[in-house]
From TrEMBL, chain A:
<feature type="transmembrane region" description="Helical">
    <location>
        <begin position="181"/>
        <end position="207"/>
    </location>
</feature>
<feature type="transmembrane region" description="Helical">
    <location>
        <begin position="106"/>
        <end position="127"/>
    </location>
</feature>
<dbReference type="InterPro" id="IPR001851">
    <property type="entry name" value="ABC_transp_permease"/>
</dbReference>
<dbReference type="Pfam" id="PF02653">
    <property type="entry name" value="BPD_transp_2"/>
</dbReference>
<dbReference type="GO" id="GO:0022857">
    <property type="term" value="F:transmembrane transporter activity"/>
</dbReference>
<keyword id="KW-1133">Transmembrane helix</keyword>
<feature type="transmembrane region" description="Helical">
    <location>
        <begin position="83"/>
        <end position="100"/>
    </location>
</feature>
<feature type="transmembrane region" description="Helical">
    <location>
        <begin position="139"/>
        <end position="161"/>
    </location>
</feature>
<keyword id="KW-0472">Membrane</keyword>
TrEMBL record, chain B:
<feature type="signal peptide">
    <location>
        <begin position="1"/>
        <end position="24"/>
    </location>
</feature>
<feature type="region of interest" description="Disordered">
    <location>
        <begin position="32"/>
        <end position="71"/>
    </location>
</feature>
<protein>
    <submittedName>
        <fullName>Nucleoside-binding protein</fullName>
    </submittedName>
</protein>
<dbReference type="InterPro" id="IPR050957">
    <property type="entry name" value="BMP_lipoprotein"/>
</dbReference>
<feature type="compositionally biased region" description="Gly residues">
    <location>
        <begin position="33"/>
        <end position="43"/>
    </location>
</feature>
<dbReference type="Pfam" id="PF02608">
    <property type="entry name" value="Bmp"/>
</dbReference>
<dbReference type="InterPro" id="IPR003760">
    <property type="entry name" value="PnrA-like"/>
</dbReference>
<keyword id="KW-0472">Membrane</keyword>
<dbReference type="InterPro" id="IPR028082">
    <property type="entry name" value="Peripla_BP_I"/>
</dbReference>
């Protein structure tokens, strides 16, 4: 009971707080908060928005997982942005050039994407373990470089095809596409949602049921203890960043293989940063990340619906920001409260008075 | 420096005897730029080619196309902006102005505006169009080529709604494409820059390196070279394709522009949306000149403190195109719209406010006429 409360109370508080704060902002800006909330809830019953929400959430789930893997070991992989964009362009080029039977074709594209993402994450990993370069610095810079690489690779002189004012890679033929789950007029849910779910399960299994997962979490909780236990910090850093990069490589795949079939200059950027927020919201837990991804996607779609009824769409950005901030704060408050309660319980159980610091007690 | 031979390099001479003046002994500027920031006595104006003859009377055929007796009161116009939306002092604002004018002159019943976010996924663009079409807005106008895929997918779902897209050519029974000959307008900007440069050295600052902005670059370079074959041209883009921040980053615009000015350029043309503000500021601090884009930026209130350096603007009449489209739609005569808004229909052009190009309008109109008549072909790809 108490565990459930510790886990669920903070996000509920955070969302309630965010709604309150946004309502105040809406009232100040002269809009009706009830109309806004009504539109945000109502859009879910328009088929297309519901489908779009799930599709975006699929992408956010993947990107959230990629970031969360790094978080498990206290690695802040800001480079997911660059890794997924680099992987997307490489996979799109390879996928457009190959001619393979169905299923195999899509499988090859996915593997190429994961390898490309991992390869791009190798750079910060190697820099970190050999030269001690902090991954935040190196990955941020590599994000810019990835942007340049994508622009170079997609240019007409390289692999791009110009259509009107837009440039994108050669389209991936039908054999490489992943069919979606059609809901008629409401749209089509990406088939990749199944793969994302499997990855979530794999993430959970890896962390809680394998030796690697144990070592990963141990290194994250206490590097010195892990080292004393025979875990090589360098090896763990490299593997973690590579796995994170490989998952990052898949981020653009739902859209690439399920909707756009080509990667171009209009393809969405910025998912990597969304992933950080989603992983924070989900507390790095596979189910939590799924919840965070759905919430984030729903807020994103709300921006369009609110704009449509004349309410400033920036309100959803405020809401996203407040939710992340309040979730972090709320968890910390609940954690401290639980800790204090625990200490009181232990104190009561052990003796009539708590041990002093000198005797090994805590403050 | 190596250009110091031309002791008689008077800019006034160059300006008043344009086309005939052959500066004897004008050393060709071969170099990778000197440190002569802007004019002074060091650089020399260009050796100018003969301009094509200006049309007789040189009247620019502006058949000012007013509302007439077209009644659009049964139209509800939906307008889907690209990133920036109303108030960007550029492209989106021009589209908004077209709708505003249609409301005033044609009595459009209702209009609604929605705006794209900077990093949004494709389906957000689709829902935006879909929601407006569902709410009964007809026509629905998508501003910007970023909407191409969305219009392609949404338009067939609403066969009774007329869609229009600015800056992209699309097929479809209920889709009207409003595209422009940016390279032709930019050609004239290039000519003007060559005539006004004191160092025979000009620069182009593009926002994002996409095919659309490359059209501006291509036209500008061809124009400058047509007017002055030996001219030196700097070209820079603020961000690579895929990174839209180049359209909204005045600081970057300022830095790139200052770099071009430092290497000797003294007339800069920008096609960088809101980043152009930075280009104008750099030009002002170096006493150089700059050319605006899309709308008459000399008149732009947000640029008032730098308007002295804006010698002209390459005009892209998005507002006219949008207005004409609404009017044609109300009159049920969509076929009357030009396939492309080019110089011939005054879909692109140059502005004269500020009076800095008044002395060369004859030459500019000469080039304009030559392009309209097909004597000069302007390519839309940079060499």
């Amino acid at each position: 009971m108490s565990v459930l409360r510790t886990r669920l109370l903070p996000p509920v508080l955070a969302i309630a707080f965010a709604i309150l704060l946004c309502s105040i902002a809406l009232v100040i800006s002269g809009a009706n908060p009830f109309a806004a909330m009504g539109a945000m809830a109502g859009q879910l019953f328009e088929g297309t928005t519901a489908v779009d929400t799930i599709n975006s959430a699929t992408v956010y789930y993947l990107v959230g997982l990629a970031v969360a893997i790094g978080f498990q070991m206290n690695l802040f992989n800001i480079g997911v942005e660059g890794q997924y964009r680099f992987a997307a362009i490489v996979a799109a080029i390879v996928g457009g050039a190959l001619n393979l039977p169905p299923v195999l074709h899509a499988f090859v594209i996915i593997v190429v994407a994961a390898l490309a993402g991992a390869a791009y994450a190798t750079i910060p990993a190697v820099l970190k373990v050999t030269r001690g370069v902090h991954e935040v610095i190196s990955t941020i810079m590599l994000n810019s470089i990835a942007g340049g690489l994508v622009a170079y690779l997609v240019s007409v002189d390289q692999f791009g095809v110009q259509q009107g004012n837009s440039v994108s890679t050669e389209p991936i033929p039908a054999s490489g596409q992943i069919p979606g789950i059609s809901f008629g007029a409401a749209g089509t849910i990406f088939g990749f949602v199944v793969i994302a779910g499997l990855l979530g399960f794999g993430y959970w299994f890896l962390l809680t049921r394998t030796r690697f997962g144990f070592e990963l979490r141990a290194s994250g909780l206490s590097p010195t203890a892990a080292a004393a236990g025979g875990v090589s910090a360098k090896k763990m850093t490299v593997i973690t960043l590579l796995v994170s990069g490989a998952v990052a490589g898949l981020v653009a795949m739902p859209e690439l293989l399920g909707r756009d079939y080509a990667y171009g200059i209009n393809s969405t950027t910025g998912y990597g940063f969304t992933g950080i927020a989603v992983a924070l919201l989900g507390r790095n837990h596979p189910a939590g990340i799924a919840f965070g991804a759905l919430l984030w996607a729903w807020l994103d779609k709300s921006a369009v619906s609110l704009d449509n009824i004349g309410i400033p769409k920036e309100i959803t950005t405020i809401m996203q920001g407040t939710i992340v901030l309040s979730v972090v704060v709320a968890y910390e408050i609940v954690r401290r409260a639980e800790l204090a309660a625990e200490q009181r319980r232990v104190g009561r159980a052990l003796a009539t008075e708590p041990a002093s610091v000198r005797e090994g007690g805590t403050l | 420096m190596r250009r110091s031979r031309g002791a008689f390099a008077s800019r006034l001479a160059a300006i008043s005897f344009v086309g005939v003046l052959a500066l004897a002994g004008c050393a060709k500027d071969t170099g990778d730029g000197g440190d002569n920031a802007s004019g002074g006595g060091q650089g020399q104006p260009c050796e100018l080619a003969d301009p094509p003859a200006a049309p007789q009377g040189s009247e620019s055929n502006t058949e000012e196309n007013d509302g007439g007796d077209v009644d659009a009161s049964d139209l509800k116009v939906g307008l889907a902006f690209d990133v920036g939306g109303r108030g960007d002092a550029s492209f989106n604002d021009a589209a908004a102005a077209g709708v505003d004018r249609a409301e005033e002159e044609l009595g459009v019943a209702d209009s609604k505006e929605t705006t794209a976010a900077a990093t949004e996924s494709e389906d957000a663009k689709m829902s935006r169009l879909r929601q407006m079409a569902t709410d009964g807005f007809n026509p629905v106008i998508a501003v910007g080529f970023a909407y191409a895929e969305s219009v392609k997918k949404v338009a067939p779902q609403f066969p009774d709604t007329q869609f229009a897209i600015v800056d992209e050519s699309l097929d479809g029974d209920n889709v009207t494409s409003l595209v422009f000959a940016e390279e032709q307008g930019s050609f004239l900007a290039g000519v003007a820059a060559a005539y006004k440069s004191e160092n025979c050295h000009v620069g182009f600052v593009g926002g994002v390196n996409t095919p659309l902005i490359q059209k501006f670059e291509a036209g500008f370079i061809q124009g400058a070279k047509a007017a002055a074959p030996d001219i030196e041209i700097e070209r820079d883009y603020l961000t690579p394709a895929g990174d839209l921040s180049g359209f909204n980053d005045p600081n970057k615009g300022n830095v790139k522009a200052a770099g071009q000015l430092n290497s000797g350029a003294d007339v800069l043309f920008h096609a960088a949306g809101a980043s152009g503000k930075g280009v104008f500021q750099a030009a002002k601090s170096k006493d150089a000149l700059a050319i605006g884009v899309d709308s008459d930026q000399y008149k732009d209130k947000t640029l008032a403190d730098t308007k002295d350096v804006i010698m002209t603007s390459m005009i892209k009449e998005v507002d006219v195109a949008v207005f004409d489209f609404i009017k044609a739609m109300a009159a049920d005569d969509l076929d009357s719209l030009p396939e492309r808004f080019d110089l011939a229909v005054n879909g692109v052009g140059y502005s004269t406010s500020g009076g800095k190009v008044d002395d060369i309008t004859e030459q500019l109109d000469g080039y304009k006429q030559a392009i309209i008549e097909g004597d000069i072909k302007v390519s839309d790809k940079p060499e």
